Amino acid sequence: MSDLIEGYLGKTEEGKKSRLPAKLDFMQSFTGGFLALFMWGHMLFVSSILISKDFMYTITKFFEGSFIFNEGQPIIVSIIAFIVFVIFIVHAALGMRKLPSNFKQYQVMKAHAKSMNHDDTKLWFTQAFTGFAMFFLGSVHLYIIMTHADAIGPYESADRVWSEYMWPLYILLLLAVEFHGTIGLYRLCVKWGWFDGENPKATRKTLKKVKWSLTVFFLVLGFASLAAYMKIGMENAANGTVGQKYTPTASVIEYKITNKSVGGIA
Ligand code: HEM
C-alpha cells in the first residue's frame, strides 16, 4: 500500500493503525505555522514603502545580502522564494487531504455545519475556500518573484503592481492570505492546546479576538501598502518612466559609504 493511501485510510497493509495521518497532520501544522509567521515578516517588509522609497530600497538590498556583497545579490531572494514555494506546495498538498472529494461529501458537510451552527466549523469553510484560491494566486506571485528577484524595489515593484497589472491579483491574494493565515494560526493554538491554561473556553474567546485584530491589522497595512505602490506606479506611467531602476537619494549612499569606511578601518 502506498504511503499516500495509507495516509488516507489510516491503516497499514496488515490492517494495523498507521501513524502516518498523525505525522502528515503535524507536517501540515508545521508548514502552515511557518508560512503564517513568514507572512507577518513579509507584510512588514512590503509595507516599508509607507515610510519612504529609500527605506524600502534599503530593506530590499538587505535581503539581497548587501551587508556581505557590495551591490547585493538578487539570487539570494530567488533562493528564499524557491524554498518558500516548496513549503507552500507541500502545505497545499497536505491540505488537499481535508477537502471534500465530491459534491455529495460537500453537501453532507455543509448540512452538518449548518445544523451545528458552530463558529469553528464555519471557519473551516473559509479555510478551504481561501486555501483553494491561494493555489493559483500564490503560485503566480511566487513564480514571478522567484524569476524576477532583480526587479524588486520602490519603482520596480510599483511598475509591476500598476503597469504589469498585478494589483487585481494582489487584492484577492491579500484577502485570501490574511484570512487564511490568521485562522490557521488560531486553529493551531486550539488544536495543539497552546495557551489553554485553566479555562480553555475563555482562552478560545480571547484567541478569537486576537485573531480578528490581527486580520484587520494586516489587511489595513496591506491595502495601505498596495495603494502606495499603485500611486508610484501611476506616477511612473504618467511620466513615461516605467521600467527605470530606483536610485537611492544621497543620504542612503552616504550612510553606506560611511559604514563601509568605518568597517574598513576597524
Ligand atoms: C520569498 C518569498 C516572497 C517574496 C520575496 C515576496 C516579495 C514581495 C514583494 C517584493 C512584494 C511587493 C510587490 C511586488 O514587488 O510585486 C510582494 C507583495 C505581496 N506578496 Fe509577496 N513575496 C513572497 C512570498 C509571498 C507569499 C508566500 C504570499 C502569499 C501566498 C505573498 C503575498 C503577497 C501579497 C498579498 C502581496 C501584496 C501586498 C500588498 O501590496 O500589500 N508573498 N511580495
UniProtKB/TrEMBL annotation:
Example of a GO cellular component annotation carried by this entry: plasma membrane
Molecular function terms from GO: metal ion binding; oxidoreductase activity
Compartmental location: Cell inner membrane; Membrane
Keyword annotations from UniProtKB, A to Z: Cell membrane, Electron transport, Heme, Iron, Membrane, Metal-binding, Oxidoreductase, Transmembrane, Transmembrane helix, Transport, Tricarboxylic acid cycle
Top-rank taxon: Bacteria
InterPro entries: Fum_red_B_TM, SQR/QFR_C/D, SuccDH_FuR_B_TM-su
GO term, biological process aspect, one: tricarboxylic acid cycle
Record: residues binding heme b: H42, H91, H141, H180
Transmembrane segments: 26-52, 72-94, 123-145, 165-189, 210-230
SUPFAM superfamilies: Fumarate reductase respiratory complex transmembrane subunits (SSF81343)
Free-text function comment from the UniProt entry: The fumarate reductase enzyme complex is required for fumarate respiration. This subunit anchors the complex in the membrane and binds a diheme cytochrome b.
Cross-referenced NCBIfam families: PRK13553.1
Name under which the protein is recorded: Fumarate reductase cytochrome b subunit
Organism: Arcobacter venerupis
Lineage: Bacteria, Pseudomonadati, Campylobacterota, Epsilonproteobacteria, Campylobacterales
Gene: frdC1
